[in-house]
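[PROTEIN RECORD]
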Amino acid sequence: MSRLWHLLLNERLSPSDVLKSEPALNDVVQHVFRGESGLAYDVRSLEYFRDIHEQNMPAVWAKLQIPVLAMIGQYEVRCSPFEHEYIADIVNFHAPRKGTWMVLPKLDHGFAVHESMQDAVTNEFKGPFGNIVVTRFVEWATNVIKPA
């Protein structure tokens, strides 16, 4: 996966050019560009990912002087808890005690509930919404936002 994204983002190859140069990546390319839409994961254009990749996201997070909550599901497959912890660390370095991160049990990238990682991989974004997202957010906001 990392090799594919390197080629797509840094080398700016198209998915078809990746397959021509590295046919061993066929399964990974098919996983990311699995539908007829030509979109990565059937939801985002390659240009979207390239635009995000070209941003200095740590600098963006560093400019915030407001409370930030970075939430991630336990069964997340698109990013890691480290990334969310990193966001909170950056915010806290520049605005002490403003950054928080948390892992929400049994949830995927879209905050759908799953009973296992395998279920989340097979049925990503499918399933009931994890109400714990709202509960934890309200708890966090209640502790962070103080009446004037």
About this structure: The chain is about 50% helix and 10% strand.
